[in-house]
Amino acid sequence: MIELRVPVVQAPMAGGPSTPELAAAVSNAGGLGFLAGGYLPPDRLRDQVRRTRELTRERFGVNLFVLEAHAVDDAAVAAYARELEQYGVELAAPRFDDDSFAEKVELLLGERVPVVSATFACPPPATIESLRSAGSEVWVTVTSRDEARTARDAGADVLVAQGAEAGGHRGSWTDADGPDLPVLELLAALRDAVDLPLVAAGGIADSDAVRAVLAAGAVAAQAGTAFLLSQEAGTNEAHRSAIRGGGETTVTRAFSGRRARAIVNEFVRAHPNAPSAFPHVLFMTAPLRRSGDPALRNFLAGVHFAQAKELPAAEIVARLSP
Fold this sequence. Notes:
The chain is of the alpha/beta class and 322 residues long.
């Protein structure tokens, strides 16, 4: 694994919070900043990679979604659409999309990004080998021993161990209902299963948490929610207000059709039984999330979101430093 002056990785946060400014600031502060390739068209991702290079000479990473088409319960998705009619917003058609994975890999091969990470599944071994040949370290997000062993056998350089406390979508390779191991338990399980560097994710909100995961065998800690209020983050104002407002988080499929940890709001409470169908439901509910009504928005966050600080990213890296 590449050496970091500070063992802190800024988690890729798709949908807006991750920006070139945030990634560069974290890398310049001695950690490792990440761009979130998820949801971005390839040309916009290229622009972000090049903008990041204008802002830092340090290494940074790019995260990609690895989405595989699976059969979904169309009747359950249709029933959920009828349930959502109460909001008076015309929904979009549910559909599958692989998030332009092949095109983004080709882009990153040309850009020779220092680190490429994957979420939701493991890239094919041939893809991992191509990225490594282009000079990229390949990190794979895992949530279990089986996933870790498969990623190791596919050629991954580093495993991102995502614990139950993490905000955002679960990085598990299926959308099954748990069990989700807390990050320290997951580290213990993976440490005995694979001989690869482990980056710990989930509930990393302060230097004590970083020290705890390092003591448990991780080589670095990945934090996302801790940076949501940073000056460089692209977090929208409604999301920032929700974080400032306090409350609690839960794991829900209500917004996207895939389990994700979010701040509890009216929409989450109203739809506890949303179907498992990602990204189908994500596309379907997009008009709701764009409606401007905060009660219909998704505010992804980890369990310790109340500890997020409105500070420059470099100061947040310093606060996380063990």
